[in-house]
Amino acid sequence: MKSTDVKIRRAGPTEFAKVADMHYPVWRRSWAGMIEDYLLDVIGTPKLWAEVKYPEAVNRPGWGMWIAEARNKILGMSIYGPDFSTANTTRLEALYTADEAKSLRIGVRLLNKAVRSNPSSDVILWCAEKNEKARQFYEKHDFQLDGRTHIWKPLPGISVPHVGYRHKAAGQA
Questions:
Q1: Beta 7-10 vs 64-70: how paired, if at all?
Q2: Contact between 147 and 95 (Cβ < 8 Å)
Q3: If you count Cβ atoms within 10 Å of the first and of the last residue's Cβ in the chain, which end, N or C, has fewer?
């Protein structure tokens, strides 16, 4: 498969189950060492995402899910839309790519789609503090720590520190 085979497009509700089938195993691996596997099964499942979480996310005004696919196979996904607490800012909520798609630079293409969706190129996101792989990816693509912190508490007794990242267009302070 070549990168020219990959198309990026908006996903529709009938595709959410197929997206979750790609997203879920990658999501689980991204939490390795931070949250026990058995707890991840309590926090999220492909069925919960496809039937509840994805629809909730994309039904917000201006929000959408974008997928990268080739030969009828979903290789990556992102969810983003306007951040309602900060004017002229896009919030990237999710970006995941299938392992076999890493060499195709799908993550970069999905990230660039989110950045270009906002004329100001001002994009924010949260990243688990201990997710070094994701942090390196965002930093390599011009995202910088912005001083925000957040403790995600998905279940009683489980706390996961997150840090905020921001991408601004060249020349913006």
A1: antiparallel
A2: no
A3: C
Residue 89 backbone dihedrals phi, psi, to 5 degrees = -130, 135
CA distance 26 to 32: 10
How does strand 158-167 pair with strand 144-155?
Answer: antiparallel
Report mean pLDDT in 10-residue bins for the chain, 173 residues.
82 96 95 92 93 96 95 95 90 94 90 88 94 96 96 95 87 50
Contacts (Cβ under 8 Å, ≥6 apart) of 161? 128, 129, 130, 149, 150, 151, 152
Q: Nearest Cα to 131, choosing from 94, 157, 101, 168? A: 94
Q: How far apart are CA 155 and CA 147, in angstroms?
A: 25
Residues in the chain, overall count: 173
Residue 130 backbone zone (phi > 0: left; psi -120 to 50: alpha; other: beta): alpha
Cα angle 132, 137, 142; round to 5: 125
Q: What is the pTM of this model?
A: 0.92
Q: What CA–CA distance (Å, rounded) separates 66 from 113? A: 9
Is residue 152 a contact partner of residue 162, using CB atoms and an 8 Å limit? yes
